Amino acid sequence: MVSIYVDADACPVKQETVRVAERHGLRVVMVSDGGLRPDPHPLVETVVVAQGADAADDWIADRIGPGDVCVTSDIPLAARCLKHGGQALKPTGEPFTQDGIGQALAGRAIAEHRRSIGEQTRGPAPFSKADRARFLDRLETAVRAARRAGG
């Protein structure tokens, strides 16, 4: 059975994720290190992990499996999910892929270095209605692909 894991602390597409999961009868696990209000939907499980760097990421990475989907903007978490056979999707709808994850990790490392030496870097673009629509479409596609593959 396909599960959808959500790195939920700053995720702008929690409701959209639940809508897609409901359409397919899939379990959604919202993982947070606190401050997340539990969703009363019967398909949603809310997990609050101990606060700490990467605690939510570790929880997800330890449980995700082939065919599962993770919704996250966190590149290292996405890499771990892909390594375990899962799929990873940004809230903007952009999928993380095996072919592109190395470059994404390298770009992240370069940006961290630039910030550490005091250089100003740009943050992500503002989240838009087009991002939300693209996410819904791509999550639907990811879930259908996982179910066809035997999830």
**Based on DSSP secondary structure assignment, what is the total number of beta strands?**
6
Distance between the termini: 5 Å
Structural class: alpha/beta
Major β-sheet strand ordering: 3-2-1-4-5-6
CATH architecture: 3-Layer(aba) Sandwich
Average pLDDT rating: 89
Shape: globular
CATH class descriptor = Alpha Beta
Portion in strands:
15-25%
User: Helical region count?
Assistant: 5
Q: What is the domain tally? A: 1
CATH topology: Rossmann fold
Oligomer: single chain
Radius of gyration: 15 Å
- As a percent range, the share of helical residues equals 40-55%
Catalogue the unreliable spans.
Answer: none
Largest sheet, in brief, is: 6 strands, mixed
Order of helices and strands: EHEEHEHEEHH
What key phrases describe this protein's structure?
alpha/beta, 5 helices, globular
Provide the fold topology.
Blueprint: E1 3-7, H1 14-24, E2 27-32, E3 44-48, H2 55-63, E4 69-71, H3 75-83, E5 87-89, E6 95-96, H4 98-116, H5 129-148
Mind explaining what this structure looks like?
The protein is an alpha/beta fold and 151 residues long. It has one domain: 3-Layer(aba) Sandwich (Rossmann fold), CATH 3.40.50. The chain has 5 helices and 6 strands; from the N terminus they run E-H-E-E-H-E-H-E-E-H-H. A 6-stranded mixed β-sheet has the order 3-2-1-4-5-6, sandwiched between helices. Helix 1 runs parallel beside helix 5 and helix 3 packs antiparallel against helix 4. The protein is globular. The N and C termini lie close together (5 Å). 31% of the residues are buried. The mean pLDDT is 89.
